[in-house]
Amino acid sequence: MDNQFFKNIEKKTGVNMKDIFDLANSLQNANFSDERTVRGVIRRVSQIANKPVSQEMEDKIVDSIVKDGKQLDFNEISKMLNKK
Description:
The chain is an all-alpha fold. The protein has helices spanning 3-13, 17-27, 35-49, 55-67, 74-82. It contains 5 helices and no strands.
């Protein structure tokens, strides 16, 4: 992809694209049935997005993925984070 494209995304979102690519690479072989792995991913995404996740919300996301067997769905996680 065009480097300028990523620079524009970084400018608009404030999110470093290198961080996004590093996260994406780390997810390729991640075990999402492991609670520790899922918590690490949640914390990393929270850090990259500069959006704090409460312990209660982290627990709900972990339960949704690990205990309920749902696939990691960023849209669903986004909905959870945006609920008031």
